[in-house]
Amino acid sequence: MTGIKNTLDTLRHRLLPREMDELGWQPIFWLGYLGFLFMPLVIDMGSRDWLLGTLLSIPVFLMLYFRGFWHSGDALWPYLLSMCALGYVLGPIHPNANTYLIYAAAFAPFLRRGLTVTMTFILVMLLVYAFEIWLLGLNMISLFVAAFVAVAAGFGNHFFIVNTRRQAELRLSHDEIRRLAALSERERISRDLHDLLGHTLSLVALKSELASRLCERDPHGARREIDEVQRVARDALSQVRLAVTGIRAAGIAAELASARLLLEVDAISLQYEGGDIAMPVDIETVLALVIREAITNVQRHARATSVCVKFSSGPSSILLTVTDDGRGSEVVAGNGLTGMRERIEALGGTLHIEPVHGRGTKIEASVPLTMQTQASDVYAPAQRPRMYTA
């Protein structure tokens, strides 16, 4: 199956540029509308004089169609006009020749000249078609059908292109935000380590040098200096561990910021409730991963408009709740869900997922606070990094 999929993907990339990857196989499926050219075979068993001309026109159209995806802007004009010409030439002998005009209207937004130019092109194209129908005395119904579908296709693709451009710009801004955030974090870590270790290591070097000078003439003084070096080193180690813990403890804040950026692309709002809650680093890390997996599932599957992330704590446990207002479909246990459950259960906690059809999904992760984790490796609320609040 993998070999067949790779072969099909290779074929698609030969026909369509990689910029169209987000459309997948849709451009191929859109060719199904060519079936309208053969509707007379179904509804009219009379003369088939139109059939030969139609069959000859299809290879020409397919060449224009697939090459059109490789061009945009002014380079697309020859393909649009050629599609229109096919429709006009076939019009006198085929009642559904307006199919080619509708394809041309669908391509018009890729001129990237704005909605005014797109609609002007479609209007002129339809006026020429109307003149042809009047001149030949053909049925005006085909004009009305062509006008309705062409305008709809033009509007639809125009707003698709606008939305795609905005999403690309948004992704670029998100990448820049992440880059700047990573740069800022590296600078902060560098400053913290310099402040913590610069003075301490200088003091260790100074006292070690002093101890070496006192070794022969004042052994007791040298011993005191060595003891002081040991104390300073232990204090420095404690501060470094605290600093590293602080870096690791930024997990939930970082995940909330990433979640906001991810959901923003699909116009999904994010609310955060719970304030700053002190928790051990291992619990923070696990709950941050739960948030990541839950938000990813919402973005991919839920079709939601809002998500709420809520923390609450008691004397012996911490509860994370993630709710959305999506479709609430049945949850299938995949690698992400299994990983979430295993991490929570490894800490002695529980994970409960409650989908409600048509009303969203609720995820509750409860983790107990043991006496050991309550007494050590915990950030006080005042020390913890400020979290995002939407």
Can you summarize this structure?
The protein has a five-stranded mixed β-sheet. Helix 7 packs antiparallel against helix 8 and helix 8 (141-217) runs antiparallel to helix 9. Helices cover 63% and strands 9% of the residues.
Descriptive account of the structure:
By secondary structure, the chain is of the alpha+beta class. It contains 13 helices and five strands. The protein has helices at 2-15, 26-29, 40-43, 50-68, 77-90, 98-107, 115-136, 141-217, 219-248, 251-264, 281-302, 335-346, 371-375, and strands at 269-273, 306-313, 317-324, 350-356, 360-368. The chain has a five-stranded mixed beta sheet with strand order 1-2-3-5-4. Helix 4 packs antiparallel against helix 5. The radius of gyration is 33 Å and the shape is elongated. The two termini are 45 Å apart.
- Low-pLDDT parts are 371-390
C-alpha end-to-end distance: 45 Å
How many whole angstroms does the radius of gyration measure? 33 Å
Reported for the largest beta sheet, the result is: 5 strands, mixed
Number of strands: 5
Fraction of helical residues: 55-70%
Spatial shape? elongated
Structural class of the helices, strands and pairings?
alpha+beta
Total number of helical segments?
13
Strand order of the largest sheet: 1-2-3-5-4
Key terms:
390 residues, alpha+beta, 13 helices, 5 strands, 9% strand, elongated
Topology:
Layout: H1 2-15, H2 26-29, H3 40-43, H4 50-68, H5 77-90, H6 98-107, H7 115-136, H8 141-217, H9 219-248, H10 251-264, E1 269-273, H11 281-302, E2 306-313, E3 317-324, H12 335-346, E4 350-356, E5 360-368, H13 371-375
Parallel strand pairs: 1-2
Antiparallel strand pairs: 2-3, 3-5, 4-5
Helix pairs in contact: 4-5, 5-6, 6-7, 6-8, 7-8, 8-9, 10-11, 11-12
